Amino acid sequence: MYAPRHRSDPNSFTSLPLATEATSQPVSDVSSNTVFEVKLQANVGSSNIQSAISFVRTAPAGVTIGYILPRPTFAVVMFGKTPGATAWDVKHTNMETGVVENCTCANGSYAYVAVITSLDANTVYQVEARVSQVYNSVNFTEEQSPYGRSFNFTTARLSAFGRVTFVNTATTTQIQDSINDAYANNSNVHSANLITFDNMTDSIYRHYEILVNEPTAPNAATLMIPDTAFYTNNQVRYEVTSTRYDFNSIMEYFYFLDDDVCDAVPDSRKWFLFTDEGSRENFTFPTGNDGLSGQIFTIQSEPSRIGVSSGNTNVFNFTLEPNSLYGIGQNNLVRDCDVSEPFYRRIYELTDDNHPGNFYAIFDTTDDAPLPNLNFASVPESNGESVRVSFPSATPERVTQYTFTYVGSNGSTLSTTLEEWEIDGGSDLTMRLVGLNVDGTTSVNVSARFRSFDGSISASRSLNDFSVTTGM
C-alpha cells in the first residue's frame, strides 16, 4: 500500500496486490518528485499483519529552462525551480554538426544556473537539463531522472574591431558606405558598422565593428580592408591588451582608468539585468574622468533589490523578488588605449588578438527575505490531543526545514520539524502536531531554514504564528 506523504486524507492508501512469491512490485502512474509512504500487509490465516511505514521519494521529471543568455562563445542557462534540487546535468547539441556534449558547467557553486563554454559563434544549439541530485545526498541516474524539454538558442556573432584613417574627409554616411563597399566581397564578414570618429595627433581615425560569419575567429589579417587607395593605417583586432578596465571574478565591483590620451571619446558601458524570467532592465553607467585613480562602481545586493553606486552616490536601484537569482549581462562597447593608440572592443570578448573568449557574471541576493504569511489550516484528530496541519508550499525549492514550536499539554515546549527530504514538489505540505491540550486552542510558531544559491543553509528564521484547536 502506498500514499503521498502530504495527502489530505490520512487514511487513504492505494492497495496493490502482491503475489505470494514476489519480492518486488513496480508502481506506475505516480507523481514525480513526491514523497510517498509505503507499507506492506500480509494476510496470515485470519490475521492481517502490517509493516511499519517506510518513505520513498520519486525522482524529478526533467528541468524547465527559464532563460538563456547566448554570447558568441558561451551561454548562461538559468533553470526553473525544482524543490530539493542541489545538482544538475546539462547537455548541449551543436545542431550544425550533430555533436552532443555533456557539461559539468555549474557557475562556481551557484545553484539554478549553468554556464556552457567553448561554443561556436553564430551556431544553433539545443540544450537540455535534468536534476541529478536532491538535498545534497540522493543521486539519480538519467533513467530515473530524465532530461526535460529541449530548448534551442543561437550564439551571437563574433566581433572584430577595425580602425582606419581616410585620405579624404567624408560624411558619416559616405564613410559607412565606403566600409560596406570594402567588405562586400569578404565571405568572412556579415556586416561592418561605423562606431565613431576619433581625432588623435591630427590623424582622423574611423572606428568600426566587424560582425563575423564564421563559427570560429578567422585570422584578423583576412579582415583588413584590401584597397589602400583611399585608406591608410588600417588595423583589425579581436582584443586590445590593456589594464584600463579591470573586473574582479564575481563582478562585485569594477573600475576603469582614464587619462588625457583616452578621454577624447566617452565610453559606452552598457549592461542589463536578467533573471530566470528573462532580461529585466537595461542601464548605462555614467561617463567621467578621474585621472589615473579611475572610477569605481560597486554593485550592492540587499534582500529584495540591488543598487549600483559610484562612490557614495546611489546611481541605479532595481527591485527584485526576494529569494531570487539574478545576473548582470554585458554588452559593453568600450574604448581602450594601447600605448597612444585608441581602439574599441566589447567587454565580453576578453581574450588575445585572435581568440575571442568568455566573460560573464552571476549574482544572487545576499539575504533571503522572509516568506509571506502562510495560511495554515488544521483538522483535529479523533484522539482529542493532536491535529493535522496543512499549508501551501511557498518557495519549497529553497526551504530546507520547517519547525513548528508550541506549548504542550504538560506545559513543556514541544517542536516538530518537516525536513528537506519531506518538502517535495506538491502544492501543499502537511504536518501532524501531537501532545496538545484536549479540547483547547494552542498558539504555534513556525520558523524555516533556507538553502542559499551557494549551497549554504541559513540560520532559522521565524515566520508567522497561527493557532490550532483540538476536539474531544
Task: Write a structural description.
This protein has five domains: 1-58, no CATH class; 65-154, Immunoglobulin-like (Sandwich), CATH 2.60.40; 159-237, Alpha-Beta Plaits (2-Layer Sandwich); 245-364, no CATH class; 377-469, Immunoglobulins (Immunoglobulin-like), CATH 2.60.40.10. It has 472 residues and is an all-beta fold. It has one helix at 172-183, and strands at residues 2-4, 35-38, 41-44, 47-50, 54-57, 65-70, 75-79, 85-94, 100-103, 113-116, 124-134, 138-139, 151-154, 159-166, 189-200, 203-212, 231-237, 245-247, 253-256, 270-275, 278-284, 295-302, 305-310, 313-319, 325-330, 333-338, 341-346, 361-364, 377-380, 387-392, 399-407, 413-419, 428-433, 441-450, 461-469. The protein contains one helix and 35 strands. The radius of gyration is 30 Å and the shape is elongated. Strands 8, 9, 11, 12 and 13 form a five-stranded antiparallel sheet that branches. A five-stranded antiparallel sheet has the order 18-19-22-23-24, with no helix packed on it. A hairpin with a 2-residue loop joins strand 26 (333-338) and strand 27 (341-346). The protein starts with a strand and ends with a strand. The longest helix has 12 residues, at 172-183. Helices cover 3% and strands 46% of the residues.
Beta-strand residue percentage: over 45%
Please count the helical segments.
1
Number of strands: 35
Query: How would you classify the helix and strand content by structural class?
Result: mainly beta
Shape category: elongated
Query: What is the terminal-to-terminal distance?
Result: 30 Å
Helical amount among residues, as a percent range? under 10%
Give the overall average pLDDT: 75
Whole-angstrom Rg: 30 Å
**Tally of structural domains:** 5
Poorly predicted segments: 243-261, 263-267, 287-296, 349-358
Largest sheet: 5 strands, antiparallel
